[in-house]
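In practice, a research group might receive sequence data for several interacting partners and want a quick structural hypothesis before committing to experiments. The following worked case mirrors that situation: the sequences arrive first, and a predicted assembly follows.
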Amino acid sequence: MRFIYPDYEISRNLSRCIVCRACERQCSNDAHGYDEDTEKMFAIDENCVNCHRCVSICPTRALKIVKTDNTFRENNNWKVDIIKDIYRQAESGGVLLSSMGNSKDYPIYFDKLLINASQVTNPSIDPLREPMETRVFLGKKPQAIERGPDGSLLDNAPPQLELDVPVMFSAMSYGSISYTAHECLARASQKLGIYYNTGEGGLHEDFYQYGANTIVQVASGRFGVHTNYLNAGAAVEIKMGQGAKPGIGGHLPGAKTVGDISRTRMIPIGSDAISPAPHHDIYSIEDLRQLVYSLKEATDYKKPVIVKIAAVHNVAAIASGIARSGADIVAIDGFRGGTGAAPSRILNNVGIPIELALASVDQRLRDEGIRNEVSVVVGGSVRSSSDIVKAIALGADAVYIATSALIAIGCHLCRSCHQGRCNWGIATQRPDLVRRLNPEIGFQRLVNLITAWKHEIKEMLGGMGINSIEALRGNRLMLRGIGLNENELRILGVKHAGE
Amino acid sequence: MKRIYVNEKWCLACHLCEYYCAYANSGQKDMVKALQGVRINPRIQIEEDGGVSFAVSCRHCDEPLCLKGCITGALSLDDGVIKVDEKKCVGCYTCILSCPYGAIMPSASGSAVQKCELCLENSAGEPACVKGCPNRAIVYEERV
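A structural hypothesis for the assembly, expressed as tokens:
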């Protein structure tokens, strides 16, 4: 006997269904079937993950997925999800897994911040008529201007990343996402003048051509790391932590370690790729400094080194240590950041919101006089151009996006990546599913998204009377909180609306 | 001359091209009305075997064997497009036998043949299979 009733029901409008069977052919979860005798389609609700592949592909709009109205007796303490989780664990005896980000009902501070606009005294700027700068440079900034004997300015800037828009695609490994998804990200980065991140699965040899727009990651498993890899990218990122699962490493099941993935990761076919929770050679900031400089040595001091951490309780002090470790950029990943697979309890209960982490890190670095030592990049559910504007006003140099990027290329947030059967060809390695994502389409959708966001950022900057994104950074007077308590306002460093 | 080309790398074998073809040639304005309860007889067909699939429709050959074999002059090459005149076709099926791609088939009546005419003659105005393909596995473009 199964205790769990399906979460979703497939609703088929029989007056519109033409029995083309596209839903059946496209569902990798076998939630649709065709009955030869009655010549009708049928549905198996318990297989449905609500990914909307069938809904989107149905040529007559005959399908929709509805949340079941089958109900337990109302209980504010024992909510439906809690009861079902207990049933699941009582059946399996295992750790619950889920994917993508923390979906629980915690405050979203971006939605409690409001952006300023100019009226009368400081005129707003029309970006369609006047130049507006969205370019940013990421990396350590020089302490002082240096001049040569003839008085000319010397270029004493350490290596920098140059971004046309303050957005980068954050780390998603080849393995966690498909070859075609990586191709979309790589090509879009090149077209947009930004960067994407390999994640910890190495870099497929086909994508070395996009190296100038690639950040190569070194994580605790060191999968796919070698000299050519390090030098193929524009920057090297040390992954210390991930917002979705602070304190634990990644785990790519052996079933996904197939073909090119095994070669790219430099591990045997079929072996589980388990990244240790810590880097076993890093137990202090001094140890981190050694890795930072090892990587700089390996790349001839020509590439900035990023250190990525999850936003945890003591994030400001950790970021301060990173700024002193020689790293050029610190990337902070908030608790809503995505993942291809993580234990649900960690996903939903560990870490802190990126808005609070960012504000406290920026303030701490400024207080200590070392803000110029590192650029700050934040990720963990940056959902729109207004989230970007707010992040930059809170002190970020740029943002990392991943979930938004995947949504742009088809992800419908069914949060089933860990099952490896992504119907949209993103979080899967099954060849028949991978080819559902034609990079020609996906790449253009990413370019469209970031181009649209760039327009919107310019509009918002112009509204504030600012013509350069650099002039917004850390400009918290451009923000006001709404519905926030004094502690929250103090940490965010913003006044309440009306003040 | 623009032609329909297929790229099997991106074909999902969803068979929607067949349904869009049948709809475009149905003369109806509503897909449900056109296709519900109908066993379709499309002019484009998916071939699939062992994980490989692609759509096959008329190649509009420069030297068409079908046209050479036609005994009544029902088939014609008009500005690069091979068209069939159902009024002239007597249903001898010589063209079906001679087409190396299997891209000509009997029409629903059985007394004539049908083939892809690039949706130039029907209400779609542009190839409906190309427009409806969810993964751009069928394209309509100029190639040298």
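Before designing any experiment, note the following. The mean pLDDT of chain A is 96. The interface with chain B takes residues 15-18, 20-22, 25-26, 56-57, 59-60, 431-432, 435-436, 438, 440-441 of chain A (CB under 8 Å).
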